[in-house]
């Protein structure tokens, strides 16, 4: 049994400034430790089983003499009941760290999910779309909530404000939230049902997206307006305007035109070979360039060490928004992708070229046997005639009241 020292009063304890351990009585083994620097703290020196322990009870004077005595007695009672206070603290700290490691916020979960799945997405734009949508709509509500605690009510807080006004965006957002929460469940960060699931869950609380608002196709410019538009576009002296012009002349997707490189273009043969890794169908697409497209390319500046045909002003590839901005400044509702629809409508309604030829020109996935034959042969020169007819048609505005001429396939 340890000897209990003479009891010191609170005033006497306050006067202890000599470095070392000073027993204060009241509880066996309780002492005030004073460091050479003058810091003071409470220590309980005792045996725990066969081990001698020095157990800290807090700093003085934040922990008063009375508090130190109470803590010391509680610690000695716990030891008498078979508890090792030092080990108990370590176990509690370990459990706390484990609990903290098992908690993750929605924002962190989303970032980790996107990182894990990014390699599966064929188009780098998908990662940007995921991030932008979640940052704009989901993170303000869900971002700092642990995924373990996210319920249906939280998901509805995100979706309800935009469900009617931005139905397509909201529907995609719901799917993305559901994917993140599924990843969190598979990673043992949450349990139970997914509150963002549609069937048997949100479908009972939100209107069916197809009934709220019909899905709109990409707004396209009327065929009769194409000539006037091209005159205005060609008067704009910017790289973005030339990129948009090239996309229209080739009926290419925006990303294909923005990513075009000089090494893909054979100016002598008038062919642009878009590699498979930049095509939606993952198949090389050879584009026969019209005379207008070749003339436009020859007039473009070339920059040493830059292979991109249409580099952004600060380097790298232009964003899709850059082309859209050109059209917005012209006060048009149409979007760059809509010109592919304009081309398809023109080819189908105002020319005698076979439908399959236009489908191959648009690099659509091959369908029936007759269309597959066009893919196998690539029919490059027949397609060149189609593209030259298109370039001629859009070269100048139609006169008011004029009938759109019918182009015959040669």
Automatic annotation (TrEMBL):
Domain Tyr recombinase: 216-388
Keyword DNA-binding: yes
GO biological process, one term: DNA integration
Chain ranges of the Core-binding (CB) domain: 104-185
Short name of any one Pfam family annotated for the protein: Phage_int_M
CDD domains: INT_P4_C
Keywords: DNA integration, DNA recombination, DNA-binding
Single GO MF annotation: DNA binding
PANTHER family named in the record: PROPHAGE INTEGRASE, PROPHAGE INTEGRASE INTS-RELATED
Family of this protein: Belongs to the 'phage' integrase family.
Name the record gives this protein: Site-specific integrase
Organism field: Paraburkholderia silviterrae
Phylogenetic classification of the source organism: Bacteria, Pseudomonadati, Pseudomonadota, Betaproteobacteria, Burkholderiales
């Amino acid at each position: 049994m340890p000897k209990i020292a003479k009891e010191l009063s609170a005033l006497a304890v306050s006067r202890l400034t000599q470095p070392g351990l000073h027993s204060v009585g009241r509880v066996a083994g309780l002492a005030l430790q004073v460091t050479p620097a003058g810091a003071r703290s409470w220590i309980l020196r005792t045996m725990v089983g066969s081990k001698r322990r020095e157990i800290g009870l807090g700093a003085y004077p934040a922990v008063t003499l009375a508090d130190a005595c109470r803590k010391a007695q509680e610690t000695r009672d716990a030891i008498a009941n078979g508890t090792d206070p030092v080990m108990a603290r370590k176990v509690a700290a370990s459990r706390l760290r484990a609990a903290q490691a098992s908690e993750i916020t929605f924002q962190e979960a989303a970032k980790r999910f996107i990182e894990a799945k990014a390699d599966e997405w064929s188009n780098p734009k998908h990662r940007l779309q995921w991030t932008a949508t979640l940052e704009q709509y989901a993170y303000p509500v869900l971002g700092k909530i642990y995924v373990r605690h996210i319920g249906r009510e939280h998901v509805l807080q995100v979706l309800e404000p935009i469900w009617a006004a931005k139905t397509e965006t909201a529907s995609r957002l719901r799917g993305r939230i559901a994917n993140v929460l599924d990843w969190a469940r598979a990673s043992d960060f949450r349990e139970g049902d997914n509150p963002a699931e549609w069937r048997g869950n949100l479908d009972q609380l939100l209107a069916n997206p197809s009934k709220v608002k019909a899905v709109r196709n990409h707004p396209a410019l009327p065929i009769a307006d194409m000539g006037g538009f091209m005159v205005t576009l060609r008067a704009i002296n910017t790289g973005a305007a030339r990129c948009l012009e090239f996309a229209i002349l080739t009926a290419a997707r925006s990303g294909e035109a923005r990513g075009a490189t000089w090494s893909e273009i054979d100016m002598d043969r008038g062919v642009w070979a878009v590699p498979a890794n930049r095509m939606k169908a993952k198949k090389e697409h050879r584009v026969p360039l019209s005379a207008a497209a070749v003339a436009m390319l020859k007039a473009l500046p070339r920059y040493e060490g830059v292979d991109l045909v249409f580099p952004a002003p600060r380097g790298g590839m232009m964003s899709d928004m850059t082309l859209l901005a050109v059209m917005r400044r012209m006060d048009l509702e149409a979007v760059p992708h809509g010109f592919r629809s304009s081309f398809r409508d023109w080819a189908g309604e105002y020319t005698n070229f076979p439908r399959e030829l236009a489908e191959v020109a648009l690099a659509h996935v091959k369908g029936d046997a007759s269309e597959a034959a066009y893919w196998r042969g690539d029919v490059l020169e027949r397609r060149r005639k189609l593209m030259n007819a298109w370039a001629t048609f859009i070269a100048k505005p139609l006169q008011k009241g004029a009938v759109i001429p019918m182009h015959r396939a040669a």
